């Protein structure tokens, strides 16, 4: 099925080009309207193609800033191949500052491989996977904890390698990016990383802070890491490429449900540990308080596994099913 999205830019054209992906969207206010998804391309010479994506979730702002900044900074004469920039991938969500689209409730990073005849979010997912990733060798998808979570520092995520050769390539890329932590996890077919894998591309996803704010230091680290990585794979040369990655990378593994802590009561949660702290199985993680029933004792929630606290809930108010903590275990 053919996508209804029409690009204002020619991805085969040399040089820097900016415009919009036009997704037809007929509503009461605008019968023949379209959703304007910002897109840009810098193409020069021969080399790999890299898709740089922010705004997969609309309340994650670091990637939106970073992708836009790199588009302004990188000059075409220093590119060998192509860089495709998608700063607000799920534009309706990013425009509204929401994790999911206000048009259809769609979570873009749970919508791949998409549907060209579906709701707006699934149409966007289909275009990213089958038009943009199909011509790319690499995906850099910039995330953070969004409004409800905050990650400890700058982190990278990648799908567990399938063989020794892919393991070597992936670890080389992660080390070239140079963020402090790299998490290896099992594949989720609905994620952008799996979309990239289906199209033959290697992907790195970041988690840069969160809590609905932007931390300048994390942006600085991520910018240096991306520029060094682009130099490592040969798509970028020139004065912007750092001589070394921002730092050394330590590898972690996320081992399924036991590395997550959830609330089982509605109330106000009090964390009992700090981000970056190493914890053990059975250790108290948080207390949930009940101000609406002041004589009721708080409930204590414990960790099910050992690991390092890499992410915690940013908001104190919780409901049953809300994630409080996320652990990872050093490899």
TrEMBL record:
Coiled-coil portions: none
Domain Succinylglutamate desuccinylase/Aspartoacylase catalytic stretches: 47-230
Keyword Zinc attributed: yes
SUPFAM superfamilies: Zn-dependent exopeptidases
Molecular function GO terms recorded: hydrolase activity, acting on carbon-nitrogen (but not peptide) bonds, in linear amides; hydrolase activity, acting on ester bonds; metal ion binding
Keyword DNA-binding annotated: no
Cofactor entry: Zn(2+)
Assigned keywords, A-Z: Hydrolase, Metal-binding, Zinc
UniProt xrefs under InterPro entries: AstE_AspA_cat, N-alpha-Ac-DABA-like, N-alpha-Ac-DABA_deacetylase
Record PANTHER family: BLL3975 PROTEIN
Identification of the protein by name: Succinylglutamate desuccinylase/Aspartoacylase catalytic domain-containing protein
Species whose genome carries this gene: Paraburkholderia eburnea
